[in-house]
Amino acid sequence: MTSSNAPSNPAQIWADDLCTQLEQQRHRACLVLCGSADWHQAWLKRLIRPNWQGLFIGETSPHPQTIAQPPKQLRHLLGQETDFALFDAKAGLEADALGIVGGLIRAGGLCLICLPPKADFLNHPNPALAAFLNYPLTPEDSLKGFQAHLWHQLHQHALWLEEDQIDPAWPNLHHLPSAPSTPPLNRDVTQPTADQADALQAIQHVAFGHRKRPLLLTADRGRGKSTALGMACVALLLAGKRRITLSAARLPQVQKAFDTIENALPQLAHSGFVLREKRPGLVIFDIDQDVAEIRFRAPDDLIRAPADTELLLVDEAAHLPLPMLFALLKSHSRTVLASTEQGYEGSGRGFRLKLTEHLDAHYPGWKRHTLTTPIRWADKDPLENTLNQLFLLDTDPTDDVKASAVHSVQFERIDHPAELAQPDNRADLQRLFQLLTQAHYQTRPNDLMQLLEIPNEQLWVARAQRQIVAVLFAVGEGGLPNEPGRRFQGHLFPQLLKRHTHHPDWLSLKGWRIQRLAVWPSVQRLGLGRQLTAHFIEANQAEADTLSVSFSADAGLIRFWTSLDFQPLHLGLKRDQASGQHSAALCYPLTEKAARLTQQAQQQFQSEFAWNLTQPFQHLESDLALAILRGQPPALPSHFPNGYLQDQPFESVAFALRQWTLGQLTQLEDSDTLALWFRKVVQHQAWSDVVAASPFPHRKALEAHFKNWLAEQLAPI
């Protein structure tokens, strides 16, 4: 095969036809080049148009028309576009990078993946795995399951060119889907599509309708969601609104909205809006002796000081912690939450399910609208289809498991997780990943890669009616040398405990850390998670020193794990950026040595945690603090200063009241009064803050209520 670029060359004709068809159809495609490096280069010369500029996913670019972009930096490009992207297996193939790039390639572009011949690809390690393996594992130790999955799915759902074909039979381009009738690329971007027009109407209902009826606006990528937010800002200014706030995790995530507003400046000027100021994240107009503004504010800033705004629009809401979204909803009476829903960027359906539960409970009149029509590319896009198949997003999960099915559940360990990559096992793999995506707030494509590649894992499932209904995924940790000052890759739990207890024996203990425990929504709260964990514990009695779990802490999860005799040993002082919650670590010891270390660590943690509730954890949610303390209550005297119920000032007995409360936690029943009492007595919050959180007008009334409640609590003691 020659690399000539002459038009008479059949390979060049095929390449030109491919690019022409994609441009005419407003489609993108994934094209795999499987062969030697020289052969790759010959085809890249044919395929890459002279005026194209693209991305090479890796540290250094081998192609003059690409800019090197390491996978970790790709997230900063969200919202931008490129003509093509180039992956090379020699530089590594990371699942997250493939997913993100799929949203960056503009209509008419290509995602190019260079692979070696099959035997080399399936048997050689993926360099991208180095960052995901615990010491001392290397990519050479990986299971090669994700590579097999990639090979099968790309071969089936992407365009494929192979050097060793005896008769070069290039894919028939007539088999590419034809785009339906769609607006041309140069359509008037100030005018909404029919899909966007429906979204604008839904947003206007929030702005002009009843308060506290938020809108959840969802879409897959390329559907014009951010553009619709910008259009809504313009429409609302024309309808009389004067203060609109846009928010997102980062300003670039709302740039499309501000670009849309800028495109509408002539329309606004014609309606009397005089531009006073325009800079990144801010547009201010003079209008009829009044001022109108559209302003970006960061979510944490909005929580500290809620906006004086007529409408709050939050874009890419799934990138924000749920507690932050809940706080924004509470402090702003007219709110639109917009988000990409597919798991490419780490959202997943867990975001929708958990947010929906909160909206149902607190905002009965909330609405949801979904944008379905692609705008940045045409419908039936081949690249989008390839990525959906590759990352198991091609079908929407259905709740097809009845609660009655749990009476005949089978529990099993999947001994060879890499075999899930085989085509015959696709149903099980898809079900597993759907489970993880629904259960966890930010499941990423990289989670699928790790599931199929990590050699030191345990994967347990529960089946009902042959369907997987629960999964437990654990990773091996520990067995480390004590080398002061050295930080080993991975091994979260033993290194965390060694650091906080200053006891090096934690490093040498061998254990399993449970990373995920998920149960199918229709059969939750029926004990499946508890039973699956019990099987996992029983199977590891003779194989490990510890079992551990680390997660974003909430009271319900703490109560679940402590009920299984996992002991709380750590709570992070700072809230995690992704979840907005403190990370907790709990341990289940299996050997005498581990039990001794766990007891020592638990006693140290409980005493320090109780003390830290007065400062770093002063505003920790009281139900979470109570759940942790009740997991293993501190041994404290139960003397109650009876004088407080008479006329003894609170400040004279505050320490005694605190010690008594800590010693009585298992006897005191949960109630709103206990939560308020805990905030004042244990967490030392200011009286003004506690009164503000109560139904009482001042301290005197609240203290009188406290004393009546305490008298009731003391009666049976």
Which stretches of 5+ consecutive residues score pLDDT under 50? Answer: none
Q: Taking strands numbered 1, 2, ... along the chain, how are they ordered across the largest sheet?
A: 9-10-11-8-12-13-7-14
Please state the structural category.
alpha/beta
Number of strands: 21
CA radius of gyration is 29 Å
Q: What is the count of helical runs?
A: 25
CA-CA gap between termini:
91 Å
Q: Determine the fraction of residues in helical runs and give it as a percent range.
A: 25-40%
Overall 3D shape: globular
Largest sheet: 8 strands, mixed
Strand content: 15-25%
Indicate the mean pLDDT: 89
Give a verbal description of the structure:
With 717 residues, the protein is of the alpha/beta class. Helix content is 38%, strand content 19%. It contains 25 helices and 21 strands. The strands form three sheets. It has an eight-stranded mixed β-sheet. The chain has a seven-stranded mixed β-sheet with strand order 15-16-17-18-19-21-20, sandwiched between helices. A hairpin with a 2-residue loop joins strand 10 (282-287) and strand 11. Helix 19 (555-563) runs parallel beside helix 21 (622-631). The longest helix is centred in the C-terminal third of the chain and has 21 residues, at 592-612.
